[in-house]
Amino acid sequence: MRRFRYALLLLSMAAGCHRAPVQETAPIAIDAEDVPITAADVDMPKTYAAGVERIRNYRDQIGDAISAGTPGKAHRPLDELGFVLEALPYLARDSGVPRRHWENLVLAAEDISELAGDVHAAIDNHRSPDYERVGPLIDEAIWRLANLEEKPFDPRALSASRVGSIPIQKVPGKE
Asked: Tens of pLDDT along 94-120?
C-alpha cells in the first residue's frame, strides 16, 4: 500500500512537470493617470465646511481636466472625491451639523457619488464623460450640501461660470 502511494505520488509529479505552451496575450492599455489610492493617500478635511469646499475644488479640477481635453487627469480628483464623500457624514457630526439635516446631506453626497461614478466610468471606457449634462447636476448637489437648511434649490445662487441650464426635477411625494 505504501509503495502504491509512493508510485502514485511520483507519477503525478512526473505528469505535472511538463511545460504548457505559452499563450500570447494582447497588452493591456494602462492609463498612467489612474493610480490606485487609499484613504491614507487623501489629505482629509477636518470640518464639514472644509469638506464641502474640498468637494467644490474636486469638481473644478474634474471639469477643468475634461474641458482641457485631458480627462485622464480627472482620475485622481475623482478617486479622492469618493473618500471625502464617504467621510462627510462623520465630518458633519463632528462639526455639529444638526441631525435633522443629515438625511439631506447623505442624499446629496450619494447624488454626487453616482454622477462622479458615471464620469469616471466614461473616462475609464474612453467615452465622452458628458460633463455638460452631469456638471450642473453635481453643482446642484454641492449647493444642497452647502445649504442644508430646508429651502428649495435656486440655480441663481451658483456662480454663473459653472452653471448652464439646471433641470430641477420634482421628487415624487415631496411637494
From this structure: 999 999 999 999 999 999 999 999 999
Distance in angstroms (rounded) separating the CA atoms of residues 42 and 80 = 6
State the residue for C-alpha cell 511545460: 19
Q: What is the 3-state secondary structure (H, E, C) of the chain?
A: CHHHHHHHHHHHHHHCCCCCCCCCCCCCCCCCCCCCCCHHHCCCCCCHHHHHHHHHHHHHHHHHHHHCCCHHHHHHHHHHHHHHHHHHHHHHHHCCCCHHHHHHHHHHHHHHHHHHHHHHHHHHCCCCCCHHHHHHHHHHHHHHHHCCCCCCCCHHHCCCCCCCCCCCCCCCCCC
Sign of the Cα pseudo-torsion (136, 161, 56, 105, in order): negative
Determine what percent of the chain is predicted with pLDDT higher than 90. Answer: 61
pTM: 0.69
